[in-house]
Design goal:
The complex is a heterodimer. By secondary structure, chain A is α/β, with parallel strands linked by helices. Chain A has helices spanning 14-25, 68-78, 93-106, 214-223, 232-236, 267-273, 302-313; strands at residues 2-8, 32-37, 54-61, 85-90, 109-114, 116-120, 123-130, 135-141, 146-150, 165-174, 181-188, 200-204, 227-230, 257-261, 278-283, 296-299. Chain A has seven helices and 16 strands. The longest helix of chain B has 19 residues, at 40-58. Chain B has helices spanning 18-22, 40-58, 76-85, 103-114, 134-142, 196-201, 242-255; strands spanning 2-7, 9-11, 36-38, 64-70, 89-94, 119-123, 146-156, 159-166, 169-175, 179-183, 208-211, 220-226, 235-236. Classes of the chains: A alpha/beta, B alpha/beta.
Chain lengths: 319, 259
């Protein structure tokens, strides 16, 4: 079986995607090829491709729009329906969409948001979350080719070894907008807004109690030199802006320090913070599920603890 | 404009017993004792469809919202509210087979119902199977584009103006119909609640029940369902008061070189 990773040149996260996919694919044994779709004709330097056996850098004609259709179009040129191949894409929003579209064109099976890949006697086994991240379900492909999108873990390790040879390919045709689209534009998110990049995060859960308590959590976040984030219920109650939401369906974070205040620890939320290097959970219920993913647990009312922490710090900022 | 909303009635996963998670397997996993609820992403799609219907009617255009679900349960309690808040017709497709791990079979059943409609609204995934594929497979079967991670949809010149979450920001697109819209972290996550008067007005309305046999080519076969064991061991910080615990936390953070 051949393994082909397909990555599109995008934001600053692309180097991590390249490393993370290489890390995810490694348990399948053998080596993988990488198809790297460049952003535009005159794109600059290539990233580090260690972890792959061979790289095909595909240069478009003009600029490649940030459209999963285009991603799938390009991938289709290099993954054929009669090949014994597993195509692996990053499980970003566009990556998963491109994976589904590619599978549709190849007429083969597709799995999205795969967490782990491993080899077994039956062939590759792909596992992904189910039941709101409370369980894991494993699948085997019934035939090949097959396509999957794999969750990109933040801060993936840099693979060892030599950089592989890179072959450059130029696409002949320019991109045409689909007929169903009247007009479209992407309004970019400012980089500094992203909580995924924050080194320290304080997460407010519903146990905070009310919108009125959010400024205190913000103050605590500032005192800890951290960004304020929130669980899905807190965002949907309108206490905190949606850009701050963490969880399986929004941002998956891996900060050095994550302090979770008053969240029960529902599995879908836990999936968003469990990769934190050091996780402190504060909840007044000692049996709360959040303690199962924490390094340090504090059984206490989160507002009382926030108040005490702010008093203790007395205006001093840590970090 | 004719809109159909595909929705799923799921179980309340928050109230599943710990023992059931621990012992889960493909052969035995029964959580039917928990309360039923509308899948959260489908609920957002329903509310978005009703808001679009309101807007179209306010501008003098004809609009109708129908809904379709697959399942064998009694969902009358949900239908009552849906009819009362403005859903015109509801189809419930019954099937003997378990479709939890068969998104293509689900898409096949939905495609038959969705074919005559201009716009298909649905959630991006359901909380149980979580495959996230059904919108794409349905769009593929209908030969229509699929917009995923939709935040909002409104009327616009030339089509519907959809705002979708993208990795780099928000996609604002005007889309010609027909199309499939899969809602993610929507601006309108909760379905409106009907008043007693509205409920009384649709008292006699019933869903239409259909029997169908699913067909689909999945490509992947589910071979194991399990709960992953946790690797972390939580150390609890002791203390008599919040102040004492706060001091303990700051000391620990300093020891860990995090403060």
């Amino acid at each position: 079986m051949k393994i082909v990773a397909v990555i599109r040149e995008s934001s600053a996260q692309v180097q991590n995607q390249i490393y993370a996919l290489a890390e995810s694919i490694r348990p399948l044994g053998g080596s993988a090829q990488l198809i790297y779709l460049r952003k535009c004709e005159d794109a600059g330097e290539l990233p580090d491709f260690r972890g792959y056996e061979k790289v095909l850098a595909v240069r478009p004609k003009g600029t490649l729009p940030e459209d999963p259709e285009v991603w799938a179009d390009a991938a289709e040129m290099f993954v054929k329906p009669d090949e014994e191949v597993l195509a692996v894409l990053p499980a970003t929003m566009e990556g998963s969409e491109a994976a589904a579209l590619l599978a549709g064109r190849l007429g083969c099976g597709c799995l999205l948001n795969v967490k782990t890949l491993r080899q077994s006697e039956e062939g590759p086994v792909l596992s992904r979350p189910a039941y709101s991240n409370n369980l894991t379900v494993s699948f085997v492909p019934e035939s090949l080719p097959a396509v999957c999108s794999v969750t990109v873990q933040p801060a993936a390790e840099v693979p060892e070894g030599e950089a592989p040879a890179v072959e450059e390919v130029q696409l002949a045709e320019a991109y045409e907008e689909p007929s169903w689209l009247e007009d479209a534009e992407i309004i970019p998110r400012a980089e500094e807004e992203g909580i995924t990049a924050a080194k320290r995060v304080v997460v407010a859960g519903r146990g905070v109690g009310s919108r009125e308590k959010i400024p205190q959590m913000q103050e605590l976040a500032e005192a800890l030199d951290a960004r304020l984030a929130a669980t899905r219920p807190v965002v949907y109650d309108g206490w905190v802006d949606k850009s701050c939401m963490v969880g399986a369906s929004s941002a998956i974070i891996a900060p050095e320090l994550c302090v979770v205040m008053g969240a029960s620890g529902a599995a879908a939320f836990a999936a968003g913070v469990e990769k934190s290097k050091y996780l402190v959970a504060v909840n007044n219920d000692p049996s709360a599920a959040v303690f199962r993913i924490a390094d340090l647990g504090i059984v206490e009312d989160c507002n009382a603890l926030a108040e005490a922490l702010l008093r203790e710090l007395g205006g001093e900022k840590v970090g | 404009m004719r809109i159909i909303v595909c929705f799923k009635v799921t179980q309340d996963l928050e109230s599943v017993m710990k023992r059931d998670w621990e012992q889960a397997s493909l052969e035995a996993f029964d959580i039917s004792y928990t309360q039923k609820e509308l899948n959260c992403y489908d609920e957002a799609a329903l509310e978005a469809a009703l808001r679009l219907q309101d807007a179209l009617r306010a501008s003098g255009e004809e609009a109708v919202v129908d809904a379709v679900t697959i399942g064998n349960g009694n969902y009358d309690i949900f239908y009552k509210n849906m009819f009362a808040v403005g859903v015109n017709q509801i189809f419930q497709i019954h099937t003997e087979e378990d479709l939890t791990w068969r998104p293509d079979a689900v898409a096949g059943l939905l495609a038959e119902a969705a074919q005559p409609y201009d716009a298909v609204f649905m959630g991006c995934k359901n909380a149980m199977g979580e495959n996230g594929l059904t919108p794409y497979l349905l769009a593929g079967r209908l030969g229509r584009p699929c917009l995923n991670q939709v935040i909002s949809v409104r009327c616009a010149e030339g089509g519907l103006r959809a705002v979708c979450e993208r990795d780099a920001g928000e996609l604002h697109a005007t889309v010609r119909q027909p199309a499939v819209y899969a809602f993610g972290n929507s601006d309108t996550p909760y379905l409106r609640v009907a008043t007693l008067r509205e409920k009384l007005a649709v008292k006699g309305k019933k869903a239409e029940h259909l029997e169908r046999s699913p067909e689909g080519k999945e490509g992947f076969r589910a071979c194991r369902l399990f709960q992953e064991s946790l690797v972390k061991e939580c150390t609890f910080l002791e203390g008599e008061s919040a102040e004492e615990k706060a001091r303990g936390l700051l000391d620990t953070l300093r020891k860990e070189k995090l403060a």
